[in-house]
Specification:
Helices cover 73% and strands 0% of the residues. It is mostly helical. The relative contact order is 0.21.
Amino acid sequence: MICRHCTQISSIECSRVFASLITGLAAGVLGVTGWGGFAYYFLVHSLLGVPLYLKAQGRPTEFLQSGRSIWVDEVFTSTSLLTFILFWTLTHNFVHLF
């Protein structure tokens, strides 16, 4: 049986990976390069914590093991970060180089 915390964490992970994909596409289309792209990634992921916090009705510890996990979990994982880099570079090359 899967615990409630595990399903909440996996839904946060899915939303962060999807946000990485959309953020990478947007950064590539906008032509963001260099460290600005990573700043854009961290800005979007920090802003993603706001609707998640509101969805938890201001009590994330009721649904997750730690209150900070709603803000920082899955931001530095290879899945999320590499998804962003893949779609960022791919879209940038398609839009600005070809």
